[in-house]
Specification:
This protein is α+β, with helices and mostly antiparallel strands. The chain has one domain (3-86). 16% of the residues lie in helices and 45% in strands. It is built from one helix and four strands. It has a four-stranded antiparallel sheet. The longest helix is centred in the C-terminal third of the chain and has 14 residues, at 73-86.
């Protein structure tokens, strides 16, 4: 099966906590990877998201370790919306 990864950057203006995170993360820009797999159809190409990951720490911040943390797209969207409402 064919797969692809789409990378984007999201910005948080205040600290945030996603479900499954141990501690709140500071405001900043974070890289988000979305893994998708090709759904083969006769008439056109379609992609299905199979994973979403946030890279820690934020871009430009020093950290001893770097990790990719899995998140659900709905949780990420909800936290981003809440952040925008607060700013």
């Amino acid at each position: 099966m064919t797969t692809r990864t789409t990378q984007t950057v999201v910005r948080f203006t205040s600290s945030f906590l996603l479900p499954g995170f141990d501690t709140p993360q500071p405001a900043g820009d974070y890289r988000v990877d979305q893994d998708e797999e090709l759904i083969e159809a006769l008439s056109r190409l379609a992609w299905r998201r199979v994973g979403t990951f946030v890279h820690l720490p934020a871009i430009g911040m020093n950290g001893q370790t770097h990790q990719m943390v899995p998140v659900t797209p709905a949780d990420l969207d909800a936290v981003l919306e809440k952040d925008q409402e607060q700013s």
